[in-house]
Amino acid sequence: MENRLTVNYMNKPCYDIVFEKDFSHLKDEISDLGFDGRKALVVTDSNVDSLYAGEVVNCLEGGTLKVFKYVIPAGEEHKNLDEIRKIYEYLVSEHFDRHDLLIALGGGVVGDMTGFAAATYLRGVAFVQIPTTLLSQTDSSIGGKTGVDLSGIKNMVGAFYMPRLVYMNISTLKTLDDRQYASGFAEVMKHGLIRDQNYYSWLIENMYEINDRDPEVLSEMVRRSCEIKKAVVEKDPTEKGDRALLNFGHTLGHAIEKYMNFEMFHGECVALGCIAAAFISWKRELISMEEYYEIRDMFVPFNLPISIDSVDKEKILDLTKSDKKADSDRIRFILLKKIGKAFIDDTVTRKEMSDALDELIYVENND
Description:
Blueprint: E1 4-9, E2 12-20, H1 26-32, E3 39-45, H2 49-60, E4 66-72, H3 81-93, E5 101-106, H4 108-120, E6 126-131, H5 134-140, E7 145-150, E8 153-160, E9 165-169, H6 178-195, H7 197-205, H8 207-211, H9 215-235, H10 250-259, H11 266-283, H12 289-298, H13 313-320, E10 326-327, E11 330-331, E12 333-338, E13 341-345, H14 350-366
Parallel strand pairs: 2-9, 3-4, 3-5, 5-6, 6-9
Antiparallel strand pairs: 1-2, 7-8, 10-11, 12-13
Helix pairs in contact: 5-6, 5-9, 6-7, 6-9, 6-11, 10-11, 10-13, 11-12, 11-14
């Protein structure tokens, strides 16, 4: 299998996604980008630091590249402008200029924050993504979305800013804890649901190998998800149209995540949001009852939630209005015409969303 994909931007090659089993080729990949003799700042978090930062720094050192490291606290609660300011201050203190490089080593939070810092420091410096989680490898590291949360609202401040390279060491998935791994799988399942019914079926057929983290199956799964994400973002790089389909499950998912004060993982909330969106699609007779229950129940063997404890529905519904995907008083919702085919709809009512939340609570109490 070819170990790289090229992502195009405005119909021109923009950056490569490289699939590897270790970090041994990282130095050459960055050298090929033309950063010999420059400075590079590896930004990671307090979890990934002890796992991979030393190895990455060692791989990059030994040539003319001068390598620095900066560690941010792990967790969504630190994805804010205060932490970004600290990154700016470190870059200034070490005299980084616009010809130097930032490297994001970690999951989606690290990638989003590093990308946003790169997009805004000196009006833009280059950055590289080295995603280490399933969620970041299959979704957030691709497409140039960067940003931070504001007052607890997900990604309210951000920019579209493309990386120069996405380097994926698939073996890093082995060190993810089970909950983080499952969280990433929600985005994988989303890709099949919105774009590729055959991929969705393949995921079901390979559920045991996926849960066992079989290296060959993981490599194929990550690549196929990247191919879907690449196709969508190439068609609509700045989310003016079809790219919004990638927000399937995110409207109510983000609202639940905020309501729960980020105590639930992003992917866990996306899974609940996907079930809610599939429920609305069923009630509108777009998919069958059997398809809805299959979608709902297929999250279970991948250790993702299909229910929530009793919640204040009105608060969750109010939170959807502050989502960045809102358009005036309308909520852009992603629904399914069928498995593998999603569409954008701005007519979903508060009552429909309320009924979908009832279904999530109903599942826990009655199944």
